[in-house]
Amino acid sequence: MNLEVRTITADDWSLLRDVSLRALADSPDAFRTTLPEAQAFTDDVWLRRSAGPSPILMVLEDGRGVAMGGAFTPQDSTVAYIWGMWTAPEARGRGYAAGLLTDLVNWCRDRDLGVRLHVTEGNEAARRLYVVHGFKPTGVWEPLREGSALRVEELQLVK
């Protein structure tokens, strides 16, 4: 198997779109955006997302995207947020999420940024991964999205 970890660029916009749509179909309660919302995005939206200033990392097996995650720094903030963490069901258990998380945390640290993320209540596998990597609850909870009974918990890196 040919394995590659790629930082997504504007040239990869369709790859980002395809993997994001698979992630939303597989794990609809893990993301603030819904599958129908993402399916309605224009190609220009995907292009802008892929060309942003913060990294979106993707693991490819034989050229097929099987895991992803990104970082986002709000303007004038000293804190970055890790977002979009997902691994395809057929690729789970291979350590891809841990590797992506480590790379994203290192990107944040290289820029002297604090690191936070959100995890949906009930997603214990993701929460365990984040806690093992030094994330602790901040005590902040908010709705996953408007109209959802689910909440997301904010975690902050403390290591």
Keywords summarizing the entry:
single chain; about 160 residues; alpha+beta; 5 helices
What does the model show?
With 159 residues, this protein is α+β, with helices and mostly antiparallel strands. 32% of the residues lie in helices and 33% in strands. The chain has helices at 13-26, 35-39, 43-50, 96-110, 124-132, and strands spanning 3-7, 56-61, 64-72, 79-87, 114-120, 135-143, 151-157. A seven-stranded mixed β-sheet has the order 1-2-3-4-5-7-6, with helices on both faces. Helix 1 (13-26) packs across helix 3. The longest helix is centred in the middle third of the chain and has 15 residues, at 96-110. It is globular. The termini are far apart. The relative contact order is 0.15.
